[in-house]
Amino acid sequence: MTSDVALSRCMECGNIIPPGAPFAQCPICLVKLALNVSRTRASRSSPVNAVPASEVNTWFADLDIDHLIGAGGMGAVYLAH
Ligand SMILES: [Zn+2]
């Protein structure tokens, strides 16, 4: 007896895509894609977007901004005297 459901194969890895797979996509490749996206986002959250300490120094007349301590999605932290 043959099955009515046509099994399709993943174009990426060649695995059989199960009939009930979400978005009719290969589950293995979806997981790989999700892992890659989260890694890419994590590596992008570097202090690249932080304002240089020398510029922040001009905003606060009473403070001496020494250097950038850290930066993330919520903002940046500087050492000040
Ligand atoms: Zn695949």
> Order of helices and strands, N to C?
EEHHEE
Runs in which pLDDT lies below 50 for 5 or more consecutive residues are none
* Quaternary status: single chain
Instruction: Please give the share of residues in helix.
Output: 25-40%
Q: Total domains, how many?
A: 2
Q: What is the helix tally?
A: 2
Number of strands: 4
Distance between the termini: 80 Å
Strand order of the largest sheet: 1-2
Strand content: 15-25%
What is the molecular shape? rod-shaped
**Associated small molecules:** zinc ion
Nearest-angstrom radius of gyration? 25 Å
What does this protein look like?
28% of the residues lie in helices and 22% in strands. It has 81 residues and is α+β, with helices and mostly antiparallel strands. The protein has two domains: 1-43, no CATH class; 47-81, no CATH class. Strand 3 and strand 4 (75-80) form a beta hairpin. It is rod-shaped, with a radius of gyration of 25 Å. The model has no long low-confidence stretch (mean pLDDT 80). Bound molecules: zinc ion. Zinc ion is lined by residues 10, 12-13, 15, 26, 28-29.
